Amino acid sequence: MLPAMAKLCCGISYPHLRSMTGTHTFHPQSSPLCGGLLLGFTRERAAGQHDCVEETELSYQRQGQQALQEALEIVRDADGWRMEMSEGSGDAIYSKVRHGNHKVFRLEAELEASPEELYDILFVKVEEMHQWNPSIGQIKVLKHIGKETTVTHEVSAETVGNLIGQRDFLSVRHSLKTAECIYLGGAPTHLETLPPQPGFVRAEDGPTCIIIQPSANCAGKSRFTWLLNMDVKGWIPKSLVNQALPRAQLDFTKHLRRRLAAGGATLA
């Protein structure tokens, strides 16, 4: 689910732990990122640019900032990225193997929406994601920490043939807007009032991020970069997971495009 962003920050489709592919060298110049990735923004905010929130809640804000910083550093490091798969639409997914033989995936796409519209759908209206993404059962915002940070609980949809069963995610999500880009970051978190639930395996997504910037080629479009960094937990072969996750990213993008085409209409 999202990835359950996929979880971002976005939601991902677990039934794909069933079907699957490639390898070319990743060229960082083909994947422009805005403004150098803002190394140091976490420290600036920690110096006092927090919204008015209680000190006990600031830990979630710091978790979100740190997750975004760490995810951006993964994206920023151009070494080791290889082409995983591409689509006729121009969507491409690259992968990189990190420590512990853990594979992360990076989606690059162009979407027919402004960065603000995508921010509204993926962050502000995250609880509505199940209406257009069939891989998600529900997303509930449990805490709002200022305007930029939330704690969410996400449950994957129950689907026929799902080999790994339902997962749930407890995540902190953080957003950052600059003059050039909108960043969404996320990571697993802990909430004493919501321990792992019976009947679910609690998966972890993050540190992860989405980078949204205006398209250089066409007004009204956005360049969309999504780093998926997920541990689905449980006894699933890693090879199967590594084939399923990039396919799920492409499916998420397909559902997001359908949502954008429908405008404000509710999708069945």
Task: Using brief descriptors, characterize the structure shown.
268 residues, alpha+beta, Alpha-D-Glucose-1,6-Bisphosphate, Chain A, domain 4, 4 helices, 12 strands, StAR, lipid-binding, cholesterol binding, mitochondrion
Task: Give your account of this protein's structure.
22% of the residues lie in helices and 29% in strands. With 268 residues, the protein is an alpha+beta fold. Strands 1, 2, 3, 4, 5, 6, 7, 8, 10 and 11 form a ten-stranded mixed sheet that branches. A two-stranded antiparallel ribbon has the order 9-12. The chain is globular, with a radius of gyration of 17 Å.
Describe the SSE topology.
Blueprint: H1 41-46, H2 58-76, E1 82-86, E2 92-98, E3 102-111, H3 115-124, E4 136-145, E5 149-156, E6 167-177, E7 182-188, E8 201-202, E9 204-205, E10 208-214, E11 222-228, E12 230-231, H4 238-262
Parallel strand pairs: 6-8
Antiparallel strand pairs: 1-2, 2-3, 3-11, 4-5, 5-6, 6-7, 7-10, 9-12, 10-11
Main beta-sheet strand count, sense and barrel state? 10 strands, mixed
State the oligomer. single chain
Number of alpha- plus pi-helical segments: 4
Q: Which regions have little confidence, pLDDT < 50, spanning 5+ residues?
A: 1-9, 11-32, 39-49
Mean pLDDT: 80
Task: Kindly state the percentage of residues in helix.
Answer: 10-25%
Order of helices and strands: HHEEEHEEEEEEEEEH
